[in-house]
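Design a sequence for this backbone.
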């Protein structure tokens, strides 16, 4: 048997989660280093429902760096991919302190990287956050880097730095021009709030809106509301949100999450020319959530929307069955209804006539494609089982059966 140090191929596989912000990141002060104009806070979602898996391999036999996304070869020269590669290699070099460690993987070997999602890319759930968090985790593992890596993931996509931790995560904006203090920090682990649930409403047939990278830059350049938000509103809200999470105060958490989503979309309208991410359907879902809460006399569900048409709803576990039934009545599935609710199991609930009359006002058949039921989850994970590697012994993507 060959000795480990002489192995032709070194391989590492990791998985990483999606996150959803409750205090939104929107706007950069440095577009190259990806430094934000305000801090943000998110909930990491469970990888049982949504995750990216990435395998990184290095070999003296590889002649060039290569990248495959969901089985298709992609541009490894993308500046953000290159920034992540460069930064992980820099940390590896630093770690070895310049001394030639012969057992360590050579930094001059080319790498092959394969990445895929366990969710349909077309659904608009494809998350650059999970993708870059996973890329950085797999590369770090490959090179034996153990440093704090949110700073590196940030170079891939701002929101990716928050996917480097599980549970409730803050990305602190930092002050330094070099970005060394613009990091993610865990506010609380995923076990902190066991009753918290998340429903992702995947909406049907929407075309791709303006990307966040371009959109937020136009907002920074033109929106006075965004400036006020970053300087005055977010600092106050961030402190409040951390306290609501610490106290597991769903009402306060939910109200602030809705307000912050609404303000983010207000800054989009204040951008010139304006950007519209909310659709008629988004506004319909917003109104529905408010009617539902009003009927119960308190905040039982909270919505949040990012730079796309899908809605994310927070609720406590004991609300899910009833609210999902409200959604089923409000957006009756046009096919047989199988697979309308996916992810964690949802119990059945009977709705009172009063609830139906007050909340289910004008049903929109087929408007919601399906609902994904999930919960907060852990950060990136190492995949030990070699059969799970996305690259085979030849360093090429395994054919996916
Ligand atoms: C609306 O992290 O995708 O989802 O840093 O340019 O890659 P880049 O942008 P990205 O922006 C996310 C914006 C958001 C809010 C959030 O996740 O905080």
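Sequence:
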């Amino acid at each position: 048997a060959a000795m480990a140090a002489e192995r032709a191929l070194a391989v590492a596989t990791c998985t990483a989660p999606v996150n959803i912000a409750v205090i939104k990141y929107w706007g950069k002060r440095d577009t190259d280093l990806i430094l934000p104009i305000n801090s943000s806070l998110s909930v990491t979602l469970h990888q049982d429902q949504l995750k990216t898996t990435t395998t990184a391999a290095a070999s003296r036999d590889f002649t060039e760096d290569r990248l495959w996304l969901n089985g298709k070869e992609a541009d490894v020269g993308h500046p953000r991919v290159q920034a992540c590669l460069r930064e992980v290699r820099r940390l590896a070099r630093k770690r070895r302190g310049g001394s030639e460690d012969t057992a360590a993987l050579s930094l001059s070997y080319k790498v092959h990287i394969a990445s895929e999602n366990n969710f349909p890319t077309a659904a608009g759930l494809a998350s650059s956050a999970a993708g870059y968090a996973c890329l950085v985790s797999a590369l770090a593992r490959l090179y034996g880097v153990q440093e704090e890596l949110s700073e590196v993931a940030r170079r891939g996509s701002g929101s990716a730095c928050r996917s480097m931790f599980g549970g409730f995560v803050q990305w602190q904006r930092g002050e330094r021009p070099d970005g060394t203090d613009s990091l993610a920090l865990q506010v609380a682990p995923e076990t902190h709030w066991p009753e918290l649930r998340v429903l992702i409403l995947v909406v049907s047939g929407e075309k791709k809106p303006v990307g966040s990278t371009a959109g937020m830059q136009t907002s920074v350049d033109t929106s006075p509301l965004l400036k006020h938000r970053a300087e005055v509103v977010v600092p106050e809200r961030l402190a409040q949100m951390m306290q609501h999470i610490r106290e597991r105060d769903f009402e306060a958490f939910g109200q602030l999450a809705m307000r912050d989503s609404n303000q983010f979309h207000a800054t989009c309208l204040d951008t010139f020319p304006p950007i519209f991410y909310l659709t008629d359907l988004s506004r319909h879902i917003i109104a529905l959530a408010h009617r539902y809460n009003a009927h119960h006399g308190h905040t039982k569900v909270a919505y949040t929307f990012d730079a796309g048409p899908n809605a994310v709803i927070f609720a406590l576990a004991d609300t899910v069955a009833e609210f999902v039934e409200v959604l089923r009545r409000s957006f009756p599935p046009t096919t047989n209804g199988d697979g309308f609710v996916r992810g964690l199991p949802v119990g059945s609930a009977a709705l009172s006539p009063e609830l139906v009359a007050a909340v289910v006002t004008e049903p929109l058949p087929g408007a919601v494609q399906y609902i994904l039921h999930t919960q907060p989850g852990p950060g990136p994970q190492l995949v030990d089982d070699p059969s799970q590697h996305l690259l085979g012994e030849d360093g090429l993507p395994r054919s996916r059966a």
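The domain at 10-189+383-388 is CATH 3.30.230.10 (Ribosomal Protein S5; domain 2).
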